[in-house]
Design a protein that fits this description.
Number of domains: 4
Shape: globular
Structural class: alpha+beta
Strand content: 25-35%
Strand order of the largest sheet: 1-2-3-4
Helix content: 10-25%
Radius of gyration: 25 Å
Distance between the termini: 27 Å
Number of strands: 28
Mean pLDDT: 79
Length: 561
């Protein structure tokens, strides 16, 4: 044992000496050092791991490249962490040509296919190219995943096979009648469809495979694996994105969109999509104010001075088809959130832009309550933090922004911004300082966050049964939902009346047990008892599509450091 310890000490000393001389090593000397390192690695690796490395390296380069191209980001991360010889992610002396291993080559190919410009030097704070590219890819996959969506009285799911399912009650829009969100489940002989329970497949879409869904109270969007967008429901304000407005009973492809990676549906009849090049498209309702209207605290969303929330000038009341937000063409947009009359967008550079109507200072621009921004404007208060932001969420009058390090910032209406008080500018949510947040969502006066540990925190005002013991689920600051026990949450969708969460195995948990969540009213969970928290229940026989590496964007690649 003493001899082994002495040998390890000598190895560390030799490694330190080589590191000190790294800047003066020739390319030949660097190659010799790598060969020695590979030999040492072979001695220290367990036989099975060493054999796996050897077998993979013996494959023809074209075959190995084809194998790697078929792995998802999670599989590449595991391979990089266990088969180190596939990475070759070691520091290179200055001016010496750098060897790029098979894993890094595949990660670079994927980044370039997505339109990412890869810098010639590692970003500040990054320790390796493989780790940096893995983290970027995992973050992108994390943002794109949305296997759950909830409306006022319905829910949409993408199951493990990528099939589209719905459940709930048909919502009626007053004199205009039902929104036809659930009519896809009925035959031509049926006059109307009032409810679907339990969740059922959408008949016309059984030959399609989907990756993401989004919904509001009157329309739905679904993103196929091929990057196509399908929409259905109400379209009185052009929110479905079709040139001819009118309700659609069944999901219909939005012909003008292709290669889409991200979709969003706003509760005020707006929609958005981001394509693989990072171009943002918006469509739906614009809010216009009669020029004679006086500004007052009683302003309604339909009484705003000029079109807002879509990111471009518009003279009409709505935009019926997807239109490019030209003001952000110089930036690659990676995430978008639609609030009530305002929009947030995140760029690949980590900047957050906002535009629309500033409910309760939800735009984050130090403005007055009635301020609005027609064109996207960078939120300088977030830029000044020096953080890189990767995701956003928006509610009725509040907004949230998440950094790549898991820090959460909130501003706007104090009911749901996480601070328990109104904030005109973004501030970090104090009660989550010790948590690493990986997912955020917001709707109405409600917000939620999922941490790296898989814990679900909620706050705001909602009837969705995220109850923390006060019946109406009114919670000023983030509080952990204890009813899920040891469940590790990997996806979540919240609404004013119900909510859904999925664990890492795709099991769906419903909050408020009625047909809207896929749970039967007979369970008795659809009724509140004052001061009693209603526990969530798993939906039987449903598993949704979950990206398998959601614990943390850097969970596997941290082992590469």
């Amino acid at each position: 044992m003493a001899a082994v310890q002495s040998a390890l000490v000598d190895l560390r000393a030799a490694a330190t000496a080589c590191q000190a001389l790294a800047g003066s090593l020739s390319h030949e000397q660097a190659s010799q050092g790598l060969a020695v390192a590979d030999l040492l690695r072979a001695h220290f690796l367990p036989p099975a791991a060493a054999q796996a490395d050897s077998l993979l390296l013996e494959l023809p380069a074209e075959l190995l490249s084809d194998i790697l191209s078929r792995l998802d980001a999670s599989g590449l991360a595991r391979l990089a962490a266990t088969c180190r010889s596939l990475c070759r992610d070691t520091p290179t002396p200055p001016l010496a040509p750098r060897h790029i291993g098979p894993v890094e080559a595949e990660l670079r190919r994927r980044a370039e296919a997505r339109g990412l410009v890869i810098s010639s030097t590692l970003p500040e704070g990054a320790s390796s190219w493989v780790r940096h590219l893995l983290a970027s890819g995992l973050r992108d996959a994390l943002r794109r995943q949305a296997p759950l969506a909830v409306g006022l009285a319905h829910s949409i799911f993408v199951d493990k096979e990528g099939r589209l399912l719905t459940c709930g009650d048909e919502y009626y829009g007053g004199d205009s009648g039902p929104y036809h969100i659930l009519r896809h489940a009925v035959g031509p002989e049926d006059a109307e469809c009032r409810s679907i329970f339990p969740p059922k497949l959408v008949p016309s879409m059984q030959d399609r495979r989907f990756v993401s869904v989004a919904t509001s109270y009157d329309h739905c969007l679904a993103l196929s694996a091929e990057g196509e967008v399908y929409s259905w429901g109400e379209s009185g304000c052009g929110q479905l994105g079709h040139a001819v407005t009118g309700r659609r009973d069944v999901p219909t492809r939005v012909e003008s969109l292709s290669r889409i990676e991200r979709i969003a549906a706003g509760f005020y009849s707006t929609s958005a999509a981001i394509d693989e090049a990072g171009t943002l498209f918006t469509w739906g309702k614009a809010f216009v104010l009669d020029q004679g209207q006086e500004e007052s605290d009683s302003l309604e969303l339909d009484e705003i001075q000029r079109p807002t929330g879509l990111g471009y000038e518009l003279e009409t009341d709505w935009q019926p088809t997807p239109k490019r937000v030209d003001a952000l063409l110089q930036d690659r947009v990676v995430d978008v959130a639609l609030g009530d009359g305002f929009t947030l967008a995140v760029t690949d550079a980590g900047a957050v832009f906002s535009f629309g109507f500033s409910w309760y200072d939800a735009l984050g621009h130090y403005g007055e309550w009635v301020d609005s921004e027609v064109l996207p404007r960078r939120i300088e208060a977030l830029t000044q933090t020096g953080r890189r932001f990767v995701a956003v969420a928006a509610g009725q009058g509040h907004a949230l922004a998440l950094t790549e390090e898991g820090e959460l910032f909130g501003w706007g209406d104090g009911q749901a911004n996480g601070h328990g008080r109104g904030e005109k500018t973004p501030q970090r949510v104090a009660s989550l300082l010790d948590e690493c947040v990986k997912l955020v969502d917001a709707r109405g006066e409600m917000s939620c966050a999922v941490t790296e540990k898989g814990e679900l925190f909620t706050w705001g005002i909602s009837d969705s049964s995220f109850s923390h013991g006060n019946g109406k689920s009114k919670q000023a600051t983030p509080t952990c939902v204890e009813g899920l026990g040891r469940v590790r949450v990997a996806a979540v969708a919240i609404g004013s009346n119900h909510a859904l969460a999925a664990d890492e195995d795709g099991v769906v948990w419903g909050f408020r047990g009625n047909r809207s969540t896929g749970l039967n009213n007979e369970t008795g969970l659809g009724h509140y008892s004052c001061g009693v928290a209603i526990p969530p229940r798993p939906l039987p026989a449903l598993r949704v599509r979950i990206f398998k590496c959601l614990q943390s964007p850097a969970l596997h690649c941290t082992r590469l450091a």
